């Protein structure tokens, strides 16, 4: 058997994960991808192995396999057949020097200090070139005119038309994954992976630790975690709609959404003392309960938020000046989205029915399921409207949980020790999409490898695809419609 079978948030003993040759593992991955199984992790580890984790979304299974690095340093690249794997293969090459032969885009992705080829630097990055009459390049960043993280965008244009956008990141690389090694109970670090996805990342981290520790939090704690995750989703989506409104000079929308977002994040503040949910979720459960008086206040606030969002959105999405900028701008069709591996709202806006909460349910979503929603336009309008839909669904979910909070308390359940020589994988549907954490332990139960995949890891290339054939002046609008994370990529 070539794969160990598991589930989201479950631990697999390393001895049960098959070890194949690298070419055999490559062929196994290709065979499964042909059957529409997705690769969610493909990474190297200090135990001289490459691990692959695949998701079978139709039956909620995860498959794990491995190959020993010392036996093979080359294999035939998977990228030409399955473009979504291009970033995984680039990362393996950058970190371990493993060569995917025939890769069309073998360039740096993060520039960590421990990279295999230290001579490959940002200064020597080989940007694509185009030649032709009236072809020119426009370089933007890494320093931007505003409060924004660093990233470099290189546009190849003819006149105002964008032929190609190449995105160079890596300026924020902090060595986050290595900071998790050898330590337990690193929730503040998990909360800091991407500051706008505190709940998503700390949820993924605690799920991993609880799986390795054999701990199941109380049902009430699961409910409060889900409430926080949906409030994070609603708050960021509302802010994104305001930013999109601002980019098309629809100032009424910008003002209303901005004020409404504040109501949501202030409700998180009411629960735990942080507008971003810091300090709420810890291994074994949650730290703060939601008392009856807070439940009443939050329900009243969210009912107002729902009313205001519906009224503002129905107005904005029927305004001709908005629609003229949103519709048919930055289109990523369904087949392109599938090939490049789009996840989250960006993927669902292009017709991909992927949502971890439904496909690989975790925590409270195992008991209170959600229903997936998709659109097919794949343009700025679809990526904006899917946010509107998700805002209303998230608020409804929170109100339902507040109405039916389990009564088993929130006492933290301590983790005494972690399972030795094991792999645990956790998937969480953050507001940006599929957030994946994985940990490998040694014989003493210490973490020796920690792997993180933010949704931006896949979706940055989606932004590059979206701007092709558009005017360069549409880039800010396309960019806002994805709203990707620099630091989530530059781990």
Question: Helix coverage percent of residues?
Answer: 25-40%
Count, helices: 16
Structural class: alpha+beta
The major pleated sheet works out as: 5 strands, mixed
- What is the distance, rounded to the nearest whole angstrom, between the alpha carbons of the first and last residues? 34 Å
Overall average pLDDT: 94
CATH level-4 homologous superfamily of the largest domain:
Cytochrome-c3 Hydrogenase, chain B
CATH architecture of the largest domain: Orthogonal Bundle
Number of domains: 2
What does the radius of gyration come to? Answer: 22 Å
CATH class of the largest domain: Mainly Alpha
Q: What is the β-strand count?
A: 16
Low-confidence stretches: none
Report the β-strand fraction as a percent range. 15-25%
CATH T-level topology of the largest domain = Cytochrome-c3 Hydrogenase, chain B
Characterize the overall form. Answer: globular
Can you describe what's shown?
This protein has helices at about 20-35, 85-95, 175-180, 185-190, 200-215, 220-245, 250-270, 290-315, 320-325, 335-340, 345-350, 355-360, 380-405, 455-465, 475-480, 485-490, and strands at about 5, 10-15, 20, 40-45, 50-55, 60-70, 75, 100, 135-140, 150-160, 160-170, 280, 285, 420-430, 435-440, 445-455. The protein folds into two domains: about 5-110, NADH:ubiquinone oxidoreductase Nqo5 subunit (Beta Polymerase, domain 2, 2-Layer Sandwich), CATH 3.30.460; about 175-490, Orthogonal Bundle (Cytochrome-c3 Hydrogenase, chain B), CATH 1.10.645.10. The model has no long low-confidence stretch (mean pLDDT about 95). The protein is α+β, with helices and mostly antiparallel strands and about 500 residues long. It is built from 16 helices and 16 strands. Strands 1, 3, 4, 5 and 6 form a five-stranded mixed beta sheet that branches. A four-stranded antiparallel beta sheet has the order 2-14-15-16, with helices on one face. It is globular, with a radius of gyration of 22 Å.
